[in-house]
Amino acid sequence: MKTVAIYKQPPLSSVNNIFTLPFVPNVWIVLFIVMSVFAVTLIFLIWMSNWLHGVEMKLSFALDTVTLALLFLMSLTGYNAHLFSGISVAAAHYSIPARIATFTLFLCAVFLFTSYAACIVVLLQSASKTINTIVDLANKPITFSVQDTKHNYIYFNETVDENIKKIYFEKMKPQGAKAFTSPEIGVERVRNEFHSYLVEITLAYNIIAKTWQEHEKCSLSETELYKIPLLTLYVVKKSGYKDVFKQKMIQQHEIGLKYRITKKIMPQKQKCSANSGVIRFNSVTMKEIYPALIFLGYGICASCRK
């Protein structure tokens, strides 16, 4: 028997820029190095081809070649990859080495784009791990309520823990009577809102098992705010049964009988059934694509400058 705060972890896309997460920093560095090497290689090959054919190499043409090489990164997002290949080959239609370099660059981009896109899909469906402690509950923008029991009223009014006092005064008091509520209402708020609910854990497990769907259990987390003293057996002072009870309780614990009875009678924590056969994809909102829109906006502004 213990009391914990249950909550759902926020989506990964709400706390991180998922467009930078598929690759580690070293991979991004390698991508820029590869892009630069291919840009220099294309300029050199086209310059050599023009020199062999007696054609003057213009600076604008060299810059166009570099621009085409920069489209290598653009092809990772899936936009104009076919255009990149077509323009590059057209620009180097008379140079077989340039064609080979362009084909190699584009083939590399295809493999990278496949990995990048697959990672993005997984990250969109993933939950973060940003809330793990009482400090996180106090500082993160998550609402908070408590099971309506007498000892919770006493504890939150008399606690000396600074983080719990912060939760009480900043997150609970503004709610008024809604700060202390029944397990059914509290667990339902956790299900539908970015909300944390302090509840006796067996009650929460029972409600979750009956009402939540399988995919909703995967992002569920819990944090213990305070420990309740273990239940004890009371006997008459100097009773001869004291040692008997002690020995039998230890024996039940050692042979696993206590664990079996607890597991059979008490509702257990619901596991995320990843292999249930049900595949569910969350809808993508403006929040997920916001970094991409910002990048697009900067690109449009830069292209409009004269």
Short description:
By secondary structure, this protein is α/β, with parallel strands linked by helices.
CATH architecture of the largest domain: 3-Layer(aba) Sandwich
What form results from the Cα inertia axes? elongated
Question: What is the overall number of helices?
Answer: 12
**CATH topology assignment of the largest domain:** D-Maltodextrin-Binding Protein, domain 2
Q: Indicate the percent of residues in helices.
A: 55-70%
Q: Radius of gyration from the CA trace?
A: 31 Å
- CATH class call of the largest domain: Alpha Beta
Largest sheet: 5 strands, mixed
Membrane topology: Multi-pass membrane protein
Subcellular location: Cell membrane
Keywords: Cell membrane, Glycoprotein, Membrane, Receptor, Transmembrane, Transmembrane helix
Protein name: Glutamate receptor ionotropic, kainate 4-like
Walkthrough of the structure:
The protein is about 55% helix and about 10% strand. The protein has about 300 residues and is an alpha/beta fold. The chain has two domains: about 1-15 and about 130-230, D-Maltodextrin-Binding Protein, domain 2; about 25-125, no CATH class. A five-stranded mixed β-sheet has the order 3-2-4-1-5, with helices on both faces. Helix 1 runs antiparallel to helix 4 (about 95-125) and helix 2 (about 60-75) packs parallel to helix 4. The radius of gyration is 31 Å and the shape is elongated.
